[in-house]
Structure formats: structure tokens, C-alpha cells
Amino acid sequence: MNLTRREFAAASATLALTACAGGPSRRAEADGKLPSLGRALAPYFPFGAAITPGQVAFGSADFIKAQFSVVVAENAMKPEALAARGEGQYSFTQADELVNFARASGLKVRGHTLVWHQQTPAWFFVENGAPVTRATLITRMERYITDVVGHFKGRVYAWDVVNEAYSFGEARTRTDSEGMRLSPFREIIGEDYIEIAFRAAARADPDALLFYNDYETQNPRKIAAISEMVTRFKAAGVKIDGIGHQAHCSMLHPSVNSFERAVEQYAMLGITQHVTELDIALNDDISANRVSEASPALLARQAQRYADFFKVFIKQRRHITAVLVWGIDDAGSWLRHWPNERFEAPLLFDEKRQPKPAFWALMKLAETG
Ligand code: XIL
């Protein structure tokens, strides 16, 4: 048990967690009866997490099944995992195991991600030692989407079709004049690569929900660019069903208020929204390395901030139709390795997989509405 009495007391005081007074996490653990956050949040939206095939195979399947109602593969369904060997050569075994476990356990599955500038094998962009032509890259991208979405058809209910296509005001990130990231897809195919990708995904599984997924989705310039794209797609008959908010948050950024305003603006486009990769770093800045331990005071602040975000998700549940955290416990969080090796504890379970104050804050919120 990682949550000391002092830590729990700090969280309780901040949140007035009267129902939990006396250390329910200890009791729940002793009884083997940790309540399910996924079940508690079920009246509002499916709640879930990014998981790995290793967790499913080596002992975490029951935990995942108990706590969540939707899962996404943290890495196992990215192009570098599915198609490392070359065009038309797929490695579906691990992803299939993850998806089959989820389906057998009654969990929904999100698919992440088809077209991205990272974790995509180099062969996509090279032909006979030279950069591919636009026509070849379109063919390869369409083939990849057709094959992968087709393979998981009927098993994956929502796809992140394109990830992180826009960038505004970031150092070391080149974009075109519209803010489109100069990824190989944008450079070689042109700005219509997003539309081509969505059309291919819709053909491959007409029933899957198709998402554009990005971080900093509350940035006004991103809201404008994404809204313009969605409006254009709708006018042209290109199927797009939702916006994915990665929502990688720090203790200070973004403000809950700016996030809610963004949700309201995207809602006006007549699309749905998922919170796809939520975590709340203990650092004030998501890429900082100033925090070296999960102090009781920080855990209490983190609990409050999780609760503040979930109040908005619950209030906006007409528009926010799924919420997923990016990992099941702090030990496995990507923020321990990005942007460099460091301490972070951004999730709801600690490194010993014990519920943190944020978990109890969300349980309480879910029960009271
Ligand atoms: C991250 C994974 O969590 C890491 O394990 C991996 O090394 C890199 O990718 N935005 C996304 C996710 O859309 O796919 C990223 O996942 C985190 C940022």
C-alpha cells in the first residue's frame, strides 16, 4: 500500500471525502473489494485506459476488466507495431490478443492510430532508395488503412484515423502556412492526405466511428483549424464522427475552463468527442522535471484537478462520449520516459497499483453526480 495515512488524510481534507474517512482504500484492499470506477462512471460515459498486450497476458487482465469499460492499445496497434516488416506484411497476433481479451470481457475497443508522423515504419516513405511519390504513398496509406481497419472490422468501434496533424507555436516543429505539420504524409501527399485517410477508413468499416485525435485541443488556433477541417469534410461528404482530446495535462495546464470552452466549440460542429489519453502530471509543466516524489500535498492537488476535469466531462456528457486515461498505473506511464527519463505519477493508480486520492475523488464524484 503506497498511500500513507498522512497522504490519505491530506486528500480527504481537501476534497471533504467524508464517505472515505478512515481509509477505505486500505479496507477495500483488505476485503479484495476495490470498487470499480468504470462501473461508477457508466451512467455518464464508457471509462477506460490504454493497455498493453503484456498486461493482458501477465496478470493484469482481471484488474483491467474490473476497472474499465473501454480500452485502447497504448502502442500495439500503431503502424510500427502492426506493419514493421513491410508493405502488406502484418503482425496482428499481439493486437488480436488484446482485442479478443477486451471483447471477451465486454470492453469496448478504440483503435489508435492509423496515420501519424511517429511510430510509422520508414518503409512507408521510401521506394528503391528514394523518397516515394505522392501516388505511391497514397496507395500505401490507403492499403494500410483498408487492411488494418478491415482486419478489426466489427471489433474496434472507434478509430483515431489521423493523429496530431496540426501544430501551432511549437519549437522545432515545421508546419505549412495553415499550421499543418510538415510530416512525410503532408510533405509527400499534400494537405489532402487527411481527407484521403478518412475516406479509406470509412470504406473499410462504415460502422466504425472515425476520429481526428490531437493534443492541446483547447488551443484557439487548433480549435479554428480543426473546426475548419471538420466543416470542410462535412460539406464534401467525408465521414468524420469525432474529435479526440488527448488531454495530456499538467497540474496547471490547460485550465479546466479553457477545456470546457473548447468542448462547447467542437460540439457546435455536430460531432462527438472522446477524451482519449488523459493524464495529469504532477509537474506544473508537462515536460518539466522538477517533481521527485508524489507528496501528500501534490496527490491532493492532483485529486482535486482530476475531479475538476471530470465535473466538466460529466456536465458535457452529451458531447463527451468516452474518457480514457493513458495507462493503468504510474509505473507504466509514458511520462516517466517522455520527454526524458524522470519521476512522474500522473495516473489514478500508483506504482504498486493501489488507488490514489484521485481515484477516490472520482469515485465520490461518480456517485454524487
Ligand atoms: C506514447 C506511448 O505511451 C509510449 O509508450 C510510446 O513510446 C510513444 O507513444 N500521443 C499519442 C500517443 O497519441 O500515441 C503517445 O503514446 C503519447 C502522445
Overview of the molecule:
- The structure is a single chain.
- The chain has 14 helices and eleven strands.
- The protein is of the alpha/beta class.
- It has a single domain, classed as Alpha-Beta Barrel (TIM Barrel), CATH 3.20.20.80.
- Strands 1-2-3-6-7-8-10-11 form an eight-stranded parallel barrel, surrounded by five helices.
- α1 packs across α13, α8 (134-151) runs parallel beside α10 (193-204) and α13 (296-315) packs parallel to α14.
- Mean pLDDT is 93; it is low at 1-27.
- Residues 74-75, 163, 246, 277, 334 line the site of (3S,4R)-3-hydroxy-2-oxopiperidin-4-yl beta-D-xylopyranoside.
Strand order of the largest sheet: 1-2-3-6-7-8-10-11
Mean pLDDT: 93
Bound ions, cofactors and other small molecules, one mention each: (3S,4R)-3-hydroxy-2-oxopiperidin-4-yl beta-D-xylopyranoside
Helix content: 40-55%
Principal-axes shape call? globular
Flag low-confidence runs.
1-27
CA distance, first residue to last residue: 28 Å
Q: Biggest sheet, open or closed, and with what strands and sense? A: 8 strands, parallel, barrel
What is the helix/strand order?
A: HHHEHHEHHEEEHEHHEHEEHEHEH
Q: How many β-strand runs? A: 11
Q: What count of domains describes the coordinates?
A: 1
CATH class (first level) name: Alpha Beta
What would the CATH topology be? TIM Barrel
* CATH homologous superfamily heading: Glycosidases
Give the key terms:
single chain; 369 residues; alpha/beta; TIM Barrel; 8-stranded parallel beta barrel; two-stranded antiparallel sheet; 14 helices; 11 strands; globular; disordered N terminus; binds (3S,4R)-3-hydroxy-2-oxopiperidin-4-yl beta-D-xylopyranoside
